[in-house]
Structure formats: C-alpha cells, structure tokens
C-alpha cells in the first residue's frame, strides 16, 4: 500500500488490532471507513483540478479547451459516482 494511502488511513482514525496507529492491518469503525473513503475521493478530485490547471502550459487553443473539458468531466463523474458534496 502506498505511503499516501497509509497516511490517509491514519488521518481517518484507522488503528491496528492492538489499538495503536495503523501499520499493516487496518481496522476501521464504520464512520472511520466512510471518512477514509471520502479522503481518497477528495484527493482524486484535487488531482483533477491540478491537471486542469497544468493544462494551460501544455496545450494551445482548442486542444487546451478540449483537455480541460475532459478534466472537468472526470471531476464531475468522480464526484457524482461517490456522492461527494463540495
């Protein structure tokens, strides 16, 4: 599991079976699991926004606009699929 996912798990309150901060075995309450999933989805949404902002330096004109529309569609699809409110 990536370090970023582990950090999000700890941030959401995950603990190991002994009650200390998670290392390899993650135990979540239902509320913590919900928070963990929401953190992951929000990170994905943040990446969509960052990609859209980065497109200004990569493409020109119509290509840039098409790529930005694609990035925005991705953002909205993720948000809609997981029911995240802003």
Please characterize this protein's 3D structure.
It is a single chain. By secondary structure, the protein is an all-alpha fold. It has one domain. Helices cover 65% and strands 0% of the residues. α2 runs antiparallel to α3. The mean pLDDT is 80.
Overview features:
single chain, 86 residues, mainly alpha, 0% strand, elongated
| Biggest sheet layout | none
How many separate domains make up the residues? 1
* Helical residues, percent: 55-70%
Radius of gyration equals: 17 Å
| Low-confidence region ranges | none
Brief write-up:
With 86 residues, the chain is mainly alpha-helical.
Write the layout of secondary structure elements.
Elements: H1 3-11, H2 30-54, H3 61-82
């Amino acid at each position: 599991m990536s370090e970023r996912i582990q950090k999000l798990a700890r941030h959401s309150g995950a603990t190991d079976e002994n009650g200390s901060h998670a290392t390899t075995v993650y135990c979540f309450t239902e509320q913590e699991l919900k928070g963990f999933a929401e953190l992951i989805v929000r990170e994905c949404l943040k990446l969509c926004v960052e990609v859209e902002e980065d497109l200004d330096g990569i493409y020109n004109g119509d290509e840039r606009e098409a790529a930005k529309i694609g990035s925005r569609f991705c953002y909205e699809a993720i948000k809609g699929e997981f029911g995240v409110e802003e």
